[in-house]
Amino acid sequence: MKNRICLWACLLLLLVQGLAVCHAQNKDFANLKRYAADNRVLQEQGVVKGRVVFMGNSITDGWVRTDAQFFEENGYVGRGIGGQTSYQFLLRFREDVIKLNPEVVVINAGTNDIAENIGPYVEEYTFGNIVSMVELARANGIKVVLTSVLPAAAFSWNKAITDAPQKIVALNSRIAAYASEQGLPYVDYYHALLADDGRSLKANCSKDGVHPTLEGYRVMEPLVKKVVTEVLKN
Prior knowledge:
The chain is α/β, with parallel strands linked by helices. The protein has 10 helices and 5 strands; from the N terminus they run ααβααβαβααβαβαα. It has a 5-stranded parallel beta sheet, sandwiched between helices. β4, α8 (164-182) and β5 (186-187) form a beta-alpha-beta unit.
């Protein structure tokens, strides 16, 4: 009887684990389906000279919607998904970057990690995710451009985070130092968009203090384009 109970307990545990895995797969944590169809189109084109992929969150996603012409004219491909963290970027990096065979990937990560969208923020883990993306890109012959996290005094969707500015500064310092050590270009959006209070995003460049408006993107565009153009020449 005891053995039978243990057997049923084991079977029940396996069933629960199986259901949990199926549920997780159905949820598509990394949202791989978001760009699946668009990615197939680009893959069918093969290697395209000068292709650049922008990997990011809603800031990147909103950029494509707000100023699509900037991406179209420069051969840039936007792969931003709102709300995502660096953990999700890393999971979809192969599908949304590597398989597209770009010459360059521009990585903007960290905002939603600090906002704790999927759990407690740990700088070491976020930084490690960025390093992993860099290593994956390099292993596949893709040049990397790293960028700063944009200024944000607070997050309206998570008001419990009261030290966002300090965390952003610390992560940006670490990314910049890593870029310097590795000989990678680094685009500093942060200081270009920082308000006089030294904490927030300039009011004329954002409506919610986190996401740029067209005016904000117009500040960012020449900064990143200059760097990307130089990388493509080398």
